[in-house]
Design brief:
Radius of gyration: 21 Å
InterPro entries: GH, Glyco_hydro_1
GO molecular function, one term: beta-glucosidase activity
Family: Belongs to the glycosyl hydrolase 1 family.
CATH topology: TIM Barrel
Strand content: 15-25%
Helix content: 25-40%
Distance between the termini: 40 Å
Protein name: Beta-glucosidase 41
GO biological process, one term: carbohydrate metabolic process
Order of helices and strands: EEEEEHHHEHHEHHEHHHEHHHEHEEEE
Largest sheet: 7 strands, mixed, barrel
Length: 421
């Protein structure tokens, strides 16, 4: 839960300044004194790589981050449209305490106070999201102004600039307009690619003079799983027997596929029409659970790589190489959508930077008795790997923080290494 001020503090580690040069695109990411994920090698880990940090173009920032649905409130003001999260949170039996975001932390009315709080706390960056439901499709098609987005409005942008805080703007943080969900099931239909691109370009045109860092999606892995595999989050879809609608075996892959294609389309538009003119950059923020082998056995290392492929690799591999990890292709088969040659080309290298939201680290081991997974053929069991925070002797991977699912460990810090150059 956020405080009333609407500021959820985080220490953000953004791998910034990875300028898009096709021949020199970043080769890997490394955890301090741990394992190195090098996409180029695909099937193995490199241990104990000592990283070096070029502080001129790799920046560690202290920032706050909040998403529109969590903080804005004012759900009935200025023609605000409904989102899938409005519908989901107001559905009977969904939220245990029946809370919703109708008021939230009311930043719509308190943004000046919140910006002053950020200034007082020394924040040099503020990452927040714009909501697509702030604009109607007709307004976007006709080039008209959106009905309101107060933080990026004239007053809000002036306050942010005076506070010495740099905006990092996320285009999509899970709050799809309910109208698009009703019309064609949102992220399950390829029409979303065109509509999202139209929305993004509207934002570039309206706010590009003030925003120099754009993030297409926040944590697409999370909303693909929670919204379409477990049904625990909007739009609440999963297989029959647990949800009214959905298919946990296929829909998460379809959603992720359309998200990746939407990202690629938007990045292409930005680079062709806005990047140089507005002197900006564009990337994505991925939620990353890191996995380490419980032992040094080759089999355990391979299992760990597979677990990572189905988490970080699911999204990062297409954005760097233009396709999914080979382990996903071989294990999922026809349930995993394919990219055309032109789509793959558009995806490859479609990052100026990547934001990493890293929460915890797990040991990975093979799920040797995957009978239920073999029967279900669903997105979680497909990896055929256990993720546990304890080793074989019951020793936790690190100190517990927040709750039993989150642990501090020696694998916490993600930083770029010399292999970026």
């Amino acid at each position: 839960m956020h405080s009333r001020s609407g500021i959820a503090l985080t220490i953000a580690l953004l791998v910034l300044g990875i300028q898009h040069q096709q021949s020199q695109f970043p080769k890997g990411l490394c955890f301090w004194n741990s394992l190195c994920f090098i996409p180029e090698r695909k099937n193995s880990y490199v241990k104990n790589v000592v990283p070096s940090l070029d502080t001129e173009d790799k920046i560690l920032r202290l920032k706050s981050y909040i998403d529109t649905f969590d903080y804005e409130g004012a759900v009935k003001e200025d023609g605000r449209g409904q989102t899938i999260w409005d519908t989901f949170s107001h559905s009977t039996g969904i939220i245990l305490d029946r809370s919703n975001a109708d008021v939230a932390v009311d930043q719509y009315h308190r943004y000046i106070e919140d910006i002053q709080l950020m200034k007082d706390m020394g924040m040099d960056a503020y990452r927040f999201s714009i909501a697509c439901r702030s604009f109607s499709m007709e307004e976007m098609k006709n080039g008209e102004n959106g009905n309101s987005f107060v933080i990026l409005g004239t007053d809000g942008s002036g306050e942010i600039n005076q506070a010495g805080t740099e905006p990092y703007v996320t285009l999509y943080h899970w709050d799809l307009p309910q109208a698009l969900e009703d019309k064609y099931l949102g992220w399950l239909d390829r029409q979303i690619i065109k509509d999202f691109a139209l929305y993004a370009e509207t934002c570039f045109e309206k706010f590009g003079d003030r925003v120099k860092h754009w993030i297409t999606f926040n944590e697409p892995h999370s909303f693909s799983i929670q919204g379409y595999y477990t049904g625990f989050e909007a739009p609440g879809r999963c297989s029959t027997g647990f949800c009214r609608f959905g298919n946990s075996s296929t829909e998460p892959y379809i959603v992720a596929h359309n998200v990746l294609l939407s990202h690629a389309a938007v990045v292409d538009i930005y680079r062709k029409n806005y990047k140089d003119k507005q002197n900006g950059s564009i990337g994505i923020s991925l939620d990353v659970k890191w996995y380490v082998p419980e032992t040094n056995a080759i089999e355990n290392i391979e299992e760990t790589q597979r677990a990572q492929d189905f988490q970080l690799g699911w999204f990062l591999d297409p954005l760097i190489f233009g396709d999914y990890p080979s382990s996903m292709r071989s294990r999922i088969g026809t349930r995993l959508p394919t990219f055309t040659e032109s789509e793959s080309s558009l995806l490859e290298g479609s990052l100026d930077f990547v934001g990493i939201n890293h929460y915890t680290t797990y040991y990975a081991s093979e799920n040797a008795t995957n009978t239920i997974g073999d029967l279900l053929n669903d997105v979680v069991s497909d990896a055929n790997a256990y993720a546990i925070p304890f080793d074989k002797d019951g020793k936790p991977i690190g100190d517990v923080v927040y709750d039993s699912n989150f642990h501090l460990s020696s694998h916490e810090l993600l930083i770029p290494t010399d292999i970026f150059h």
